[in-house]
Amino acid sequence: AQTVTQSQPEMSVQEAETVTLSCTYDTSESDYYLFWYKQPPSRQMILVIRQEAYKQQNATENRFSVNFQKAAKSFSLKISDSQLGDAAMYFCAYRKAWTGGATNKLIFGTGTLLAVQP
Amino acid sequence: DTAVSQTPKYLVTQMGNDKSIKCEQNLGHDTMYWYKQDSKKFLKIMFSYNNKELIINETVPNRFSPKSPDKAHLNLHINSLELGDSAVYFCASSRGQGSQPQHFGDGTRLSIL
User: Out of A35, A43, A110, whose CB is closest to B42?
Assistant: First the structure.
């Protein structure tokens, strides 16, 4: 069974600094997708960034980028120029590529609570 | 212009009652999901429907019964509520079952007294 591990329950960063959140996963599949979701205190689940496993290039979305190491099964999120609004719970998630059948569920890590200090 | 909307946002009720949570999406997606987030913030899939057909049922007690009247709606009915059902329930939707991301509703916080 696939699993997702986030080993940092809490992290803190100064405003305008850079922070990296860790995520590792376990799978025997070669084709899959990885996601980072943000959950602010308002409880919404907001997609931050996604990565297709077949792509070697790391995904970037403005101040957010990932370091995808397929062989190491690692998928870390880097937030540059941190802002107060980045304070939230961040979830790493995995989904197997669809090859028929019920494979489209997201498997989540336990989350990392990020605090941003002014 | 809410994409995935859930009602109600908060639900407080007593043990043993039956309650429903409704979900609607206006994104034209054909796949919808229910996730449960427990008190430790852990998120886990409960059900998934594709074109009104159940495709995922993750060993959820049969007190939970999803119903999809059409592709845009996926409701969750819970019978005989128990204390352990207290959680936040999220509805989500996606286009197909490929690489497209899932879009989440704002969640329904269910509290059992």
Answer: A110
Chain A hits for B40, CB-CB cut-off 8 Å, are 110
**What are the tens digits of pLDDT across the range B25-81?**
999 998 999 999 999 999 999 999 888 888 888 878 899 999 999 999 999 999 999
Mean pLDDT value across residues A96-113: 81
Give B97's contacts in chain A (Cβ within 8 Å).
98, 103-104
Let me know how long chain B is. Answer: 113
SS3 A84: helix
Under an 8 A CB cutoff, do B33 and A105 touch? yes
